Every structure is written in C-alpha cells, then in structure tokens.
Structure to design on (323 residues):
C-alpha cells in the first residue's frame, strides 16, 4: 500500500503524521524542536519525528511515497532548507529539510511550504467545495497568510509571498514591528504585540479605567481577552484590534479575491467571538468586491501538519481532485 506523510516544523515542536492513501491517519509523533547547536541537529530531530510516526503506524519510512512539510521560514527554496530562522538560537543558520527527507523515504516527492501555505493547502483540501480561491490567515505570535489564487498556491520566487502581517495599516506608524518597520498590521494585532498596543491606548487616554496589569512583567494578550466585557480598556483594545484586523483582511480580499477566508493561530482560535466575528461584521462593509465566507479552521492546532499531509496527498496543491 502507498503511505503519505505530513511534517510540521515549528519553533517549539516538530510533529509528523503518516496516513493511508485516503488520508486516514495511522501514525503520529511529536517532539520538542532541537535548539541546535547546529541546523543539522534540527534536521535530525525532524527525521527522528518522522521515523517515530512511521513506527507508530507500523511501517518503514521507505513505504512513504510522498511527504509534505510545513515549516517556519525563511527558506532557500532551491536548496530545500530553512535559513536563519528568527525564533531559534543564532547558531542555527541552515536547516536542510527536503533532501534529507527525500533520502529517508527514498522518494523525490517532497513538498516544502511555509506554515501558512501548508495552512491554505489543508484548508482547501478539507473545505466543502474544494475552492480554487482561498486564503488562510494565522493570527498568533505573528500574522501571515497562505494564498491559493486561481488554483495555484502562491509562494513567490523566494517563498516569501503572503507576509501580510507586514502590510502597513497605520500610516502614522505609531508602533514598530518586530521586523523593525513602523505601522505594520502585526505590530498592533499579533499575540506578541497586543500588550504594547494596550499600553499605547492607555497612554493616549489615561481616563480609561482598567484592571489590566499594564506594567506587570507577565502581561499578555490573554489578559486582554479574559477581561472582555468587564474592563473598559480591554473592551476598547478589542474594538481597536477589530479595526486594524478588518483593514488587513480587507486588503487581503481586495488583492486576491478569495471565496473563503479561513483563520487559524492561537489568537483567532481561542477568541473567535472577540477576534473573528468582529472582522466578519466589518469586512462586510469595507470590501468593495465580493464578500468571502469568513470562518475559523476546523483543524485547530493541527492545521499545519494536516496541511502538510494534504500537500503530500495532492502533489503539493490541496486540490482534492488530485487525490
Ligand atoms: Zn513588519
């Protein structure tokens, strides 16, 4: 029988699943992402995890005919490697992925994607109508999109298409993004940015009352959402987040004309009513073209590994007709 594999390389965990030809998962494994010292150590961690999933499924790696990888970037796509990943130690400058996995499974059918492209591939695969035009947006520690347009998963020549978290939404540029530029969407609305944004709003209007631990070392985005409906500043911050999120999503819709926009990432997954519902309401007013369906992924935290598996099953496309 033919088997297929999906691999998710994140900054915290490596995950792998093995499935039969119809997509039924028969084995899985998860390990902590090695912190180096070199990129090869990370590669070996990925291979161990994939071997672990094969062991769990009771097959040998060479029985896998195709594998998909959803990974943190950035990439050298030609080399099939991750280059200088931001959220791993500096000693890790290069993580070869495609070649070593091809060798392990003895097949050259290995598809490497960034995690948001893996996301859109999985969402397309699992969507009701197998749409050709679809966007997956993650709102987590950062913000990014995977775009499928006219049936093609868009990656750009260097694999860096879909960095919509760096859309300029605030021309005043009041907050500086992790990338060093000002006014970017994720500088306001990512999980990492929300505490800074709440502090900025509090400075702007000191008359707003709040119990948020603004100056505490442990203040996180979660605190803001937990005090929704009970705290004036939390409610104001959530409303302002909706404003910027709707602006970012409207820009995405005008650029790519998706029929479905699917959200994932911890901030969206854990706060659908406070984050995604307001986007849906605002986008209906702010889009001048067709308004897409706006939903939250059914895959939860599995969206990247399931997308990687969907890629393996469909020749890197998420198109169910290619099963
Ligand atoms: Zn940026």
């Amino acid at each position: 029988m033919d088997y297929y594999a999906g691999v998710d390389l994140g900054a915290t965990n490596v995950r792998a699943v093995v499935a039969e030809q119809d997509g039924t998962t028969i084995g899985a494994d998860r390990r902590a992402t090695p912190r180096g010292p070199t990129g090869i150590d990370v590669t070996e961690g990925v291979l161990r995890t994939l071997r672990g999933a094969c062991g769990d499924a009771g097959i040998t790696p060479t029985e896998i005919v195709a594998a998909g990888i959803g990974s943190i970037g950035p990439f050298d796509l030609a080399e099939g490697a991750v280059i200088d990943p931001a959220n791993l130690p500096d000693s890790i400058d290069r993580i070869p992925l495609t070649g070593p996995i091809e060798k392990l499974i003895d097949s050259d059918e290995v598809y490497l994607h960034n995690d948001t492209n893996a996301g859109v591939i999985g969402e397309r695969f699992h969507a009701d109508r197998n749409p050709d035009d679809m966007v997956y947006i993650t709102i987590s520690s950062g913000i990014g999109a995977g775009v499928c347009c006219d049936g093609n998963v868009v990656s750009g020549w260097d694999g860096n298409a879909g960095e919509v978290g760096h859309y300029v939404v605030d021309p005043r540029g009041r907050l500086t993004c992790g990338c060093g530029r000002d006014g970017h969407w994720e500088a306001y609305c990512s999980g990492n940015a929300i505490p800074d944004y709440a502090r900025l709003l509090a400075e702007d209007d000191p008359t707003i009352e709040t119990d948020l631990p603004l100056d505490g070392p442990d203040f996180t985005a979660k605190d803001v959402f937990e005090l929704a409906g009970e705290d004036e500043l939390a409610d104001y911050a959530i409303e302002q987040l909706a404003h910027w999120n709707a602006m970012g999503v409207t820009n995405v819709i005008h650029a790519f004309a998706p029929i479905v926009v699917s959200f994932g990432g911890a901030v969206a997954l854990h706060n659908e009513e406070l984050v995604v519902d307001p986007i849906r309401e605002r986008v209906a007013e702010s889009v001048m073209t067709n308004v897409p369906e706006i939903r939250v992924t059914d895959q939860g935290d599995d969206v990247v590994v399931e997308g990687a598996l969907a890629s393996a099953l469909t020749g890197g496309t998420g198109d169910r007709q290619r099963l």
User: Anything to note?
Assistant: Residues 123 and 307 are 7 Å apart (CA to CA). The mean pLDDT is 96. The radius of gyration is 20 Å.
